[in-house]
């Protein structure tokens, strides 16, 4: 293989990356196809055979599911990471995991180039490339959808289909696909096609990970989630006794239960980092359950002022991750601070899932800051109610002065 023209392509086996693989070979590259298994349902061996038949010199299929949960999803859970108050960022959290391994493969193979099939309008190009540059500063990015020779030749999916037909590229899809989809074990996202009209309702057939809440079971299912340092360490189904303690098995089990009950669907318009608004539909069942449960155990165990700071850090972390900055110094610092905040976040949360909703039922913790005697109206405890008079007067001083100023201005 020629060292000077070796490229590691993030390959999915779909239309875009299959055409890109053949096109890179046309351009004189020796192509190493790289596939990351982050929980998407895919026939990886079929994709391997396809890549080799199309001319790839090697194919790497990397099982990153466990790594994805432990090193990426759990920090997001600890942060209560959510972008623009609604999006749990299943795609954004996965991209640095995928790109990190792509860089490792490139270094192992002595490849100077990496390539991907992300377009020039989306967020993924930024997430992939910033990760690559952060972890492999000397790498060269070859992104066809930002190269005029490529995007002027392939102005739409029909051009890609024609190219595939002419180059004997087998494709499992047809030109009539009404939307694009990206899946991993954290979520499935849907965008493009008929969904670009923001008022168009998503067809029922779109959803693959969750049951329509209307058709979900009429009986709620009760779960108990145990936490340590802000990370779930065990899930118990309080109805049938099922227990999951391995991180990957735990997450997949919550996906199964949450999906059955229609938990985790959202349909939003979000602000892409690159500066435009886009419409996306997401299914994130396990992530949604864990978001609510973690928020509850955190409030139960964390000091009020620490949580205020941590909440702000969580917002900042969400923006950093969404914008592709996982491996930036600021995001590393933010993750460190958030991890430190989770030292005492432990205990158990009981909840139920029912027709698209998560209901918190109760919680317990050996590190709880909740003092039942102190808060009770039936027991005075060590609290002196007369102390409240001074507390209120001090806080009222600012309000009284503001009222005095307004009355003067009104004269």
Note down, in words, how this protein is organized.
The protein is of the alpha/beta class and 411 residues long. Helix content is 43%, strand content 19%. The chain is built from 13 helices and 14 strands. The protein has a five-stranded parallel sheet, sandwiched between helices. Strands 10-9-8-13-14 form a five-stranded antiparallel sheet, covered by helices on one side. Helix 1 crosses helix 7, helix 3 crosses helix 4 (90-109) and helix 4 (90-109) packs across helix 5. The mean pLDDT is 95.
Please tell me how large the radius of gyration is: 25 Å
- C-alpha termini separation: 86 Å
Strand order of the largest sheet: 3-2-1-4-5
Shape: elongated
The amount of helix comes to 40-55%
What's the helix-strand series?
A: EHEHEHHEHEHHEEEEEHEEHHHEEHH
Q: How many strands appear in the DSSP assignment? A: 14
Strand content: 15-25%
Low-confidence region ranges: none
SS-based class: alpha/beta
Largest sheet: 5 strands, parallel
Q: What is the arithmetic mean of pLDDT?
A: 95
Q: With helices defined by DSSP (H or I, 4 residues minimum), what is the helix count?
A: 13
Index terms:
single chain; 411 residues; alpha/beta; 14 strands
Quick synopsis:
The chain has 411 residues and is an alpha/beta fold.
What's the arrangement of secondary structure elements?
Elements: E1 6-10, H1 15-26, E2 30-37, H2 44-54, E3 58-63, H3 65-79, H4 90-109, E4 113-115, H5 124-135, E5 140-142, H6 148-151, H7 157-166, E6 180-183, E7 188-191, E8 221-228, E9 231-237, E10 243-244, H8 247-260, E11 265-271, E12 277-283, H9 285-301, H10 304-322, H11 329-341, E13 347-354, E14 357-364, H12 372-375, H13 387-410
Parallel strand pairs: 1-2, 1-4, 2-3, 4-5
Antiparallel strand pairs: 6-7, 7-12, 8-9, 8-13, 9-10, 11-12, 13-14
Helix pairs in contact: 1-7, 3-4, 4-5, 8-9, 10-11
């Amino acid at each position: 293989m020629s060292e000077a023209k070796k490229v590691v392509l993030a390959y999915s086996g779909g239309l875009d990356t299959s055409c890109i693989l053949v096109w890179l070979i046309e351009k004189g590259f020796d192509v190493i196809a790289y596939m990351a298994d982050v929980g998407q349902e895919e026939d990886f061996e079929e994709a391997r055979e396809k890549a080799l038949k199309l001319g790839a010199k090697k194919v790497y299929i990397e099982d990153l599911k466990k790594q994805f949960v432990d090193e990426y999803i759990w920090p997001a859970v600890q942060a209560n990471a959510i972008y623009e108050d609604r999006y749990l960022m299943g795609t954004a959290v996965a991209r640095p995991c995928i790109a990190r391994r792509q860089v490792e493969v490139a270094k192992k193979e002595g490849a100077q180039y990496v390539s991907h099939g992300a377009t020039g309008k989306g967020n993924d190009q930024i997430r992939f490339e910033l990760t690559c540059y952060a972890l492999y500063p000397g790498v060269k990015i070859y992104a066809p959808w930002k190269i005029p020779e490529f995007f002027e030749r392939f102005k739409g999916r029909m051009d890609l289909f024609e190219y595939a037909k002419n180059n004997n590229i087998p494709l499992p899809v047809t030109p009539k696909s009404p939307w694009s989809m990206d899946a991993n074990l954290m979520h499935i996202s849907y965008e493009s096609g008929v969904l670009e009209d923001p008022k168009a309702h998503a067809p029922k057939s779109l959803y693959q990970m969750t049951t329509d809440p209307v058709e979900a079971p009429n009986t709620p299912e009760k779960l108990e989630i145990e936490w340590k340092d802000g990370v779930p360490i065990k899930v118990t189904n309080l109805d049938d006794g099922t227990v999951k303690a391995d991180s990957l098995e735990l997450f997949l089990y919550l996906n199964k239960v949450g999906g059955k009950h229609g938990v985790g669907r959202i349909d939003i318009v979000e602000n892409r980092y690159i500066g435009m608004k886009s419409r996306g539909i997401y299914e994130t069942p396990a992530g949604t359950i864990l978001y609510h449960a973690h928020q509850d155990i955190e409030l139960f165990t964390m000091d009020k002022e620490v949580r205020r700071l941590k909440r702000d850090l969580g917002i900042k972390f969400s923006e950093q991750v969404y914008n592709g900055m996982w491996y930036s110094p600021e995001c590393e610092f933010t993750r460190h601070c958030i991890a430190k905040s989770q030292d005492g976040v432990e205990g158990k949360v009981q909840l139920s899932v029912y027709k698209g909703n998560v209901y918190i039922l109760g919680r317990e913790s050996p590190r709880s800051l909740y003092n039942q005697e102190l808060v009770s109206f039936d027991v005075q405890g060590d609290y002196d109610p007369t102390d409240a008079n001074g507390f209120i007067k001090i806080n009222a001083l600012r309000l009284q002065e503001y009222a005095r100023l307004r009355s003067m201005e009104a004269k």
